[in-house]
Design goal:
By secondary structure, the protein is an alpha/beta fold. It has 12 helices and 18 strands. It has helices at 2-9, 45-53, 78-84, 104-111, 122-128, 130-138, 168-179, 188-194, 225-228, 245-254, 270-279, 291-299, and strands spanning 22-27, 30-36, 61-64, 89-92, 115-118, 142-149, 154-156, 183-187, 210-214, 235-239, 257-260, 263-264, 267-268, 284-287, 305-310, 320-321, 337-345, 348-355. The strands form 4 sheets. A 9-stranded mixed sheet has the order 11-10-9-8-14-6-15-18-17. Converts 2,5-diamino-6-(ribosylamino)-4(3h)-pyrimidinone 5'-phosphate into 5-amino-6-(ribosylamino)-2,4(1h,3h)-pyrimidinedione 5'-phosphate.
């Protein structure tokens, strides 16, 4: 199952709105077939592994990281494919949360005489499929918030200089994290100040994540990198109801997709924004700031994972903080996360935190 989970992770950021599933088929103590969900969600992991196994799949065990599908979509049910191939046993950690499948895949396998074992490495699988489950159950994708800061939590000097606080090794890891998510999200302030490309670089030819900007008034540079490349790599802009009509026309003309969101006070409603991204199919969103957007997501309890990169330099109180105001008076009100990993990345330290 650990091998199947590792295979499934190869599809992260590439399979939405489908889950990134891995499958390993074993017969006589030997791996005879492996597969993972293809780009765009098809082909499914089970059919790929079955194709590799061929006739040797008869009587074999299939380790699948999620309940095999049981409904007819653009492809026939994977449960039926496993039965037709003569698979004797299926091991899976979790039920699929999609109501079209939930429990029905396992039921169909058992009705056909296939031995079904569940619960194996369920916690690991739940973490891998968290975005798919959250979108299915609550309508929104998971959010990973990334912060790259000085030792004292600053993202720039008082004059705005920020390149580069962390080293090249840390930046390479960030590009890998982008690649494992469906979309990269930033606020309008970051888009204006940094003119970011928000693409994956240095990892070869990989599918690019959707680039999402939260900009209430659509006040973004029309000659910036995002505007110039909107027809090459998708740009989605979440805007408010008061965004000027001429700005909407301009960005649509450049090839951007516009998503209207309601306001909460003077800002875009964060939950509604994420629900809109979930409705569009996204399951995993990688937020790279800025401070106002990050604080808004934290205050709304919409951050599922924190990834921090801390450099060994200090910028002092006059430096720009990594987060905007949260309005916290008591420690008990502060959002808390559970430490999952700490490791050195070049001259910097990376730390990952999961929702407590």
């Amino acid at each position: 199952m650990a091998h199947a989970l590792a295979l499934g992770r190869r599809g992260m950021g590439r399979t939405w709105p489908n889950p990134a599933v891995g499958c390993v088929i074993v017969n006589g103590g030997r791996v005879i077939g492996r597969g993972w969900t293809g780009d765009g969600g098809r082909p499914h992991a089970e059919t790929e592994a079955l194709a590799a196994a061929g006739a040797a799949a008869k009587g074999a065990t299939a380790y699948v990281t999620l309940e095999p599908c049981a409904h007819h979509g653009q492809t026939p049910p994977c449960a039926d494919a496993l039965i037709a191939a003569g698979i004797a046993r299926v091991v899976a950690p979790l039920e699929d949360s999609d109501p079209r499948v939930s429990g029905q895949g396992f039921a169909r396998l058992r009705a056909a005489g296939v031995d079904v074992t569940t619960g194996v490495m369920a916690e690991e699988a739940a973490r891998d499929h968290a975005g798919f489950f959250l979108r299915t159950e609550q309508g929104r994708p998971t959010v990973t918030l990334k912060l790259a800061t000085s030792f004292d939590g600053r993202i720039a000097t008082a004059t705005g200089e920020s390149r580069w606080i962390t080293g090249p090794e840390a930046r390479a890891v960030v590009h890998g994290l982008r690649a494992s998510h469906d979309a990269v999200l930033v606020g309008a302030g970051t888009a204006r100040a940094d003119d970011p490309a928000l693409t994956v670089r240095g990892w070869g030819r990989v599918p690019q994540p959707v680039r999402v900007v939260a900009s209430r008034l659509l006040d973004l540079p029309l000659m910036g990198q995002l505007a110039r490349t909107a027809r090459e790599v998708p740009v989605w802009i979440c805007h408010g109801p008061d965004a000027p009509a001429e700005s909407r026309t301009a960005w649509e003309g450049l090839g951007a997709r516009l998503i209207a969101c309601p306001l909460s006070g003077r800002q875009l409603d964060a939950r509604a924004l994420l629900n809109s991204l979930g409705e569009a199919g996204l399951t995993r969103v990688f937020c790279e700031g800025g401070g106002t957007l990050a604080a808004t997501l934290l205050a709304a309890d919409l951050v599922d994972e924190l990834v921090g990169f801390t450099a060994g330099l200090a910028l002092g109180a006059e430096g720009q903080p990594s987060l905007g105001a949260l309005g916290i008076d008591r420690l008990s009100e502060a959002p808390r996360f559970r430490l999952a990993e700490t490791r050195a990345i070049g001259a910097d330290v990376m730390h990952r935190w999961h929702r407590a």
